[in-house]
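[09:14] KT: can someone run the structure on this one? pasting the chain below
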Amino acid sequence: MKNLSNIIQSYSLNKSMLSSSVLVFTLIGAFLPIGWISNVNPEAQTVGTSEMVVVEKNNQASFSDVFGKMDNDDDELFPFDKNLSVQFAKTFDDNTRGTLSFSYKMASSKLTVSCKESKEQPNPYKLDYSYDIKKDEEGNYLVNMKGVLNAFDILYVEPTVKQKFTGDYVKYPAELSVGQELPDASTELSTTITSDLTRIQKYKVMDRKVTAKEKVNIGGKEYDAFVITYQIQSVSYLNDSEIQSTTEDIKEWLAPGFGFIKKQSEKKIDIAYTESSVTVKESVSGTKISLR
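[09:31] RB: done, structure tokens below
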């Protein structure tokens, strides 16, 4: 194997890669073919290359008429009492578009969220994955870390590339209020690429706070959504050597009974062994919610 610093430098980001339409790879992608991200198996729990999403143009949330008949004063933050499908739209700054969908389904006292993502040309991808939400004895909601981290950081590809999560679920109290501080969470993601090559990613979700309650237009009517801000800090290692660190600022909208309906993020990535860094922005908004 090449000297690790040479490997990292050979795949490092540089100034010419910062245009809005370019495909930016995470360091794990230096070792895995991009073709693997299509038609992935959500049970395989493997990791591969990814496109870093660039600034998305603003999208106004709009929802199907069925929600004009549904009360937003829901006892559940997440749809434990009904099966929902939520569709989101992404428009990138090069005018290409992407889609994201969540399908919620109750099974064995936990809520399973099945997710599908896709993007059109010139850099198309398809990605399927899932995560779970459950409750503790006090009725607090515990969201699997897969539902909080950027999907591109935890892609599932070839079954030979094994992934293992250890750590916390992210807690959302049964009742939210403006000004409320929420608990931190941390996790470690281990990805075995080959017998002698392992990537470790350590994440910490911190500084979580309910900052506001805003009106969101759903099907022509206004509903209340809690605005929650937080930061994700992560450090990635290839074997024992640090290869990259990131700081990501998140703002999300959580509507009782609907779950997450909107999210904005800005991530700064610093590459080890180089002076390179890149800032990546992403914003998604709901376009349709329907009962299943």
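[09:33] KT: thanks! The radius of gyration is 19 Å.
[09:34] RB: yep, looked fine to me
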